[in-house]
Amino acid sequence: MLTRLLYVSRAVDKDDKAAIEAILASARSHNPENGITGVLCYGGGIFLQAIEGGRTAVNGLYTQIIRDPRHTPVELLHYEEITERHFGGWTMGQVNLAKLNTSIVLKYSERPEFDPYTVSGKVSMALLEELMATASIVGRV
Ligand SMILES: Cc1cc2nc3c(=O)[nH]c(=O)nc-3n(C[C@H](O)[C@H](O)[C@H](O)COP(=O)(O)O)c2cc1C
């Protein structure tokens, strides 16, 4: 049974580029063996991550992620059972939130900076789907 989960969190050190690289490296090394796919957006000290896969695998990874000291607090935005993956092509795609096309951001938010804390989980998911449709997610594997 497949599930998809979306959360937002704040990086403890928003300028730590090495931490983002390390997070993406561990995601890309562990996720394939666990059948996890998804996308990690970051920028302005915010992480927005969608993970999808088997329910046990997704819950296990989320439990691990919320204990990770590199970010806090982790706020669950959306959790659903799904019939198919949206991010099946990415072991963990990446998006730099600071470099998003302004018109895409304005489509979903009041201001030209996207802040997942101020919009609904549904809106954040819609933005991720738009990013996928406009080829804004990098790191396809
Ligand atoms: C924002 C964020 C996203 C993460 N995403 C993943 C992920 O998709 N897959 C994963 O295995 N670890 C992810 N991690 C890292 C885990 O919390 C954990 O540190 C890692 O899996 C431990 O394995 P390692 O010691 O081999 O790095 C993430 C951490 C953070 C802070």
Give a short overview:
Helices cover 35% and strands 26% of the residues. The protein is α+β, with helices and mostly antiparallel strands.
The strand line-up of the biggest sheet is: 4-1-3-2-5
Q: How many strand units?
A: 5
Helix content: 25-40%
Straight-line N-to-C gap? 23 Å
Q: Pairing-aware structural class of the strands and helices?
A: alpha+beta
Average pLDDT: 94
User: Which sequence of SSEs, written as H and E, runs from N to C?
Assistant: EHEEHEEHH
Please tally the helical runs, counting DSSP H or I stretches of 4 or more residues: 4
Estimated share of beta-strand residues: 25-35%
The unreliable regions are none
Query: Which sheet architecture does the biggest sheet show?
Result: 5 strands, mixed
- What is the alpha-carbon Rg in Å? 14 Å
**Envelope shape:** globular
Q: Give a list of the ligands.
A: flavin mononucleotide
Structure description:
The longest helix is centred in the N-terminal third of the chain and has 18 residues, at 17-34. It contains 4 helices and 5 strands; from the N terminus they run E-H-E-E-H-E-E-H-H. The radius of gyration is 14 Å and the shape is globular. The protein is of the alpha+beta class and 141 residues long. A 5-stranded mixed sheet has the order 4-1-3-2-5, sandwiched between helices. Bound molecules: flavin mononucleotide. Flavin mononucleotide binds at residues 9, 23, 26-27, 30-31, 40, 47, 49, 51, 61, 64-65, 68, 70-71, 92. Flavin mononucleotide is lined by residues 9, 23, 26-27, 30-31, 40, 47, 49, 51, 61, 64-65, 68, 70-71, 92.
